[in-house]
Design brief:
The chain has 13 helices and 8 strands. With 357 residues, it is of the alpha+beta class. It folds into 3 domains: 34-66; 77-250, no CATH class; 274-356, no CATH class. The strands form 2 sheets. The chain has a 4-stranded antiparallel sheet with strand order 1-2-4-3, with helices on one face. Strands 5-6-8-7 form a 4-stranded antiparallel sheet, with helices on one face. Helix 5 crosses helix 7, helix 7 (179-196) packs antiparallel against helix 8 and helix 11 runs antiparallel to helix 12. The radius of gyration is 31 Å and the shape is elongated. The model is unreliable at 1-5 (pLDDT under 50).
Amino acid sequence: MATDKDPSVKKTTQQNISISSKLKDRIEEYVNTNQQKNPEDKRFRSISAFYNYVMEKTIDAFDKGKTLDDLDRIVDTGTRTFFDQFTFRGIISFHDLITKPHRYTIPDFRKIPGFLFAMRDLFISDTEANVYEQIKKQFEILKAFYLENNLTRDIRLEIFTEGNSRHPKAIFEYSGIYRNLFFENCKLNAAILGIIGAKITDLIYSDKDLYCRYNLEATDLIYRKDLAKKERMKLINHNIEFLINYKMIVNDEDFYLWMNLAEKKDAIVNFSNGNAKRKWFDLIVNDLNELCDKDELSLNLLRLFEKLHWIDIENEIEPTFRIRLSEEKNEDEIRFLLELISKYSKFSEIDGKYYLE
């Protein structure tokens, strides 16, 4: 290990630099504070020792490919430790692909209260300090983490506190890199803003540019020390609705609307003609024939028709079901349904309830 007496580290030259008095004071305060905390740490033995260590480590980083721009992306140990509790490393392109079907799925944020309230505490930890100064300071610290994770192109927060308003307005801007993960992060950002107590009042969104801007207004929740779970979750849902709504859905790919309709029991899947219907069912029945035994096939057919909202299964152990279709409007579909089921199982009907034998 090299020591101060080694020729390789001996100080033989001087480098004079000019810095502002404000920066000089900040450096002296930082060194003096850490010298008191760690009197044995040679890095803080003097201003000169601190300068030498910082410059040497910086040049070493540049030799390894880092640039001046990377200095803005340095993540402090506390922030990294915090996010290590909730994040993981993965293949970005793969996760961007698998999140695509969930684009307009509203997350159940009640299942991750630990993360959300931890984020709130991270932004508002000192109840005696100026809350908006805390938020701005913590945001700048977290910004480095966002920029480092290769999902974020840019992220900005501007709070307008002129006039000492209790409910100032703000603008939050977020630019992503991957379309689906960008949208998921837009949802998460909306939830984090809600848990803190910021209400979205307007949205500017560009799917082409992967850009999102929230116009915000502070609420009394920012000042409340209690959890106020019900009120915060209500605000989260309000914020999320700016992203997940039918204006967004109908202007996106078709299957998002179909996924949404799949949850509406009063909507049914129908076909434009009999040939299309038979061809589609033949593909599915062929798979079921190959992969299921006789009893499984009949039950899986019922599950298929239930997902189309044609029937309601009342019992799967002793299979029974009721037909949801209208006898007046869906006579052909009811006939097709019963004919297909009869090919693979006998059944009886009593008072509108069908029993498989």
